[in-house]
């Protein structure tokens, strides 16, 4: 059983939900007449409401970033490595807010939610949302919580893109922006990976053009394949070699197409377990949000121009083995900020874990992260 009572753990947590009744206009031209956002908080908001941290999640994550829901939970929240007493995001010092994005499947309004116009699940009729839409909804949640300015907005991967969008769209509403293992836009190769994943889902006979809820089925095979493909891109070749090598499950070749190599078994397990807790329509939406993110596109593809009005101080972190969001992509952000004479710190962490490194307890990474967060504490 996990040590829920460990001094560096936030312990048992409870999610909260807020319903918004003011329509939200979206980039796609549609609007949501009302919607709900589910979120968790850790730590205590100070008297001046100046110690609040917003955590933006990556593609398949959610609002449960730290702690446990019950004493029976086997695993804590997805970023428990970094959130808790004495950890980089110290809940003895900060009030931390983590939410599930619109279009999600863990409690915020999304494809599984009931469409008030039809009294059936939205399914594929849920509007396509963008990173900017998410940031706009997050800003409304900040208003509900009485937070006029975040001490920092922090995210890894797709979460880092949201943090960057926050700095662009609401420059006066955050003092620091922490962008980890992210990019200013996807490469063509990344978009290609996302498209193959989407086609795996769309071509599943059980997808039913996205209305599989009414058919009491799930496009399991398509979603499993999408997850398997994605997981390969999150790991580096070194990480996979170190973890699996070419080990055979039974110690011999069986000359067939069943699982023989340990890496095959691992990927099938990841894909199968993912199907049990994630929604296929949400996966389609999240990957599209990734594809569409490109703040420079509104500035003649000039990233420096897109970053001209940011006011936050930045910490940008990349990892040497991350080939999906390589260090060169993080350096593009740094270069754009420096061109505008903005305050930016950059760290390139030597790590073998690939894109997933931002979730791992890598000592050098955690030290740099913690030192930067302590600087934010000292400003209070």
From TrEMBL:
<dbReference type="InterPro" id="IPR000073">
    <property type="entry name" value="AB_hydrolase_1"/>
</dbReference>
<keyword id="KW-0808">Transferase</keyword>
<feature type="binding site">
    <location>
        <position position="356"/>
    </location>
    <ligand>
        <name>substrate</name>
    </ligand>
</feature>
<dbReference type="GO" id="GO:0004414">
    <property type="term" value="F:homoserine O-acetyltransferase activity"/>
</dbReference>
<feature type="active site">
    <location>
        <position position="322"/>
    </location>
</feature>
<keyword id="KW-0028">Amino-acid biosynthesis</keyword>
<keyword id="KW-0963">Cytoplasm</keyword>
<comment type="pathway">
    <text>Amino-acid biosynthesis; L-methionine biosynthesis via de novo pathway; O-succinyl-L-homoserine from L-homoserine: step 1/1.</text>
</comment>
<dbReference type="GO" id="GO:0005737">
    <property type="term" value="C:cytoplasm"/>
</dbReference>
<feature type="site" description="Important for acyl-CoA specificity">
    <location>
        <position position="324"/>
    </location>
</feature>
<feature type="binding site">
    <location>
        <position position="227"/>
    </location>
    <ligand>
        <name>substrate</name>
    </ligand>
</feature>
<feature type="active site">
    <location>
        <position position="355"/>
    </location>
</feature>
<dbReference type="InterPro" id="IPR008220">
    <property type="entry name" value="HAT_MetX-like"/>
</dbReference>
<comment type="function">
    <text>Transfers a succinyl group from succinyl-CoA to L-homoserine, forming succinyl-L-homoserine.</text>
</comment>
<feature type="domain" description="AB hydrolase-1">
    <location>
        <begin position="52"/>
        <end position="358"/>
    </location>
</feature>
<dbReference type="InterPro" id="IPR029058">
    <property type="entry name" value="AB_hydrolase_fold"/>
</dbReference>
<dbReference type="Pfam" id="PF00561">
    <property type="entry name" value="Abhydrolase_1"/>
</dbReference>
<protein>
    <recommendedName>
        <fullName>Homoserine O-succinyltransferase</fullName>
        <ecNumber>2.3.1.46</ecNumber>
    </recommendedName>
</protein>
<keyword id="KW-0012">Acyltransferase</keyword>
<dbReference type="GO" id="GO:0009086">
    <property type="term" value="P:methionine biosynthetic process"/>
</dbReference>
<keyword id="KW-0486">Methionine biosynthesis</keyword>
<feature type="active site" description="Nucleophile">
    <location>
        <position position="157"/>
    </location>
</feature>
<dbReference type="GO" id="GO:0009092">
    <property type="term" value="P:homoserine metabolic process"/>
</dbReference>
<dbReference type="GO" id="GO:0008899">
    <property type="term" value="F:homoserine O-succinyltransferase activity"/>
</dbReference>
<comment type="subunit">
    <text>Homodimer.</text>
</comment>
<comment type="similarity">
    <text>Belongs to the AB hydrolase superfamily. MetX family.</text>
</comment>
């Amino acid at each position: 059983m996990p040590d829920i009572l460990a001094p560096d753990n936030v312990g048992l947590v409870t999610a909260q939900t807020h319903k918004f009744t003011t329509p939200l206009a979206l980039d796609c031209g549609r609007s949501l007449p009302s919607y709900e956002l589910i979120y968790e908080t850790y730590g205590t908001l100070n008297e001046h409401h100046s110690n609040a941290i917003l955590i933006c999640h990556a593609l398949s994550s959610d609002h449960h970033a730290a702690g446990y829901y019950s004493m029976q939970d086997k695993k804590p929240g997805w970023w428990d490595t970094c959130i808790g007493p004495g950890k980089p995001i110290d809940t003895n010092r900060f009030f931390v807010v983590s939410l599930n994005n619109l279009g999600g499947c863990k409690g915020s309004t999304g494809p599984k939610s009931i469409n008030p116009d039809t009294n059936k699940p939205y399914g594929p009729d849920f509007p396509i949302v963008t990173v900017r839409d998410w940031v706009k909804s997050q800003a409304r949640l900040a208003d509900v919580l009485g937070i006029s300015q975040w001490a920092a907005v922090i995210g890894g991967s797709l979460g880092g893109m949201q943090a960057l969008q926050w700095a662009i769209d609401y420059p006066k509403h955050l003092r620091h922006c922490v962008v980890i293992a992210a990019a200013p836009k996807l490469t063509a190769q990344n978009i290609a990976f996302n498209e193959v994943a989407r086609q795996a889902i769309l071509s599943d006979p059980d997808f039913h053009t996205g209305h599989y809820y009414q058919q009491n089925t799930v496009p399991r095979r398509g979603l499993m394949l999408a997850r398997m493909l994605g997981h390969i891109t999150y790991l580096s070749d070194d990480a996979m070699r170190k973890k699996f090598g070419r080990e055979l499950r039974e110690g011999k070749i069986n000359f067939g197409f069943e699982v023989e190599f340990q890496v095959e078994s691992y990927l099938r397990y990841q894909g199968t377990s993912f199907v049990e807790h994630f929604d296929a329509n949400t996966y389609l939406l999240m990957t599209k949000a990734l594809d569409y993110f490109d703040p420079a596109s509104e500035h003649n593809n000039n990233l420096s121009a897109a970053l001209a009005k940011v006011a936050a101080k930045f910490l940008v972190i990349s990892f040497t083995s991350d080939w999906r969001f390589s260090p060169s992509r993080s350096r593009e952000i740094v270069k754009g900020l420096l061109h505008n004479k903005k305050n930016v710190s950059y760290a390139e962490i030597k790590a073998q874990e690939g894109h997933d490194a931002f979730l791992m307890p890598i000592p050098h990474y955690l030290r740099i992260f913690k030192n930067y967060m302590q600087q934010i504490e000292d400003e209070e």
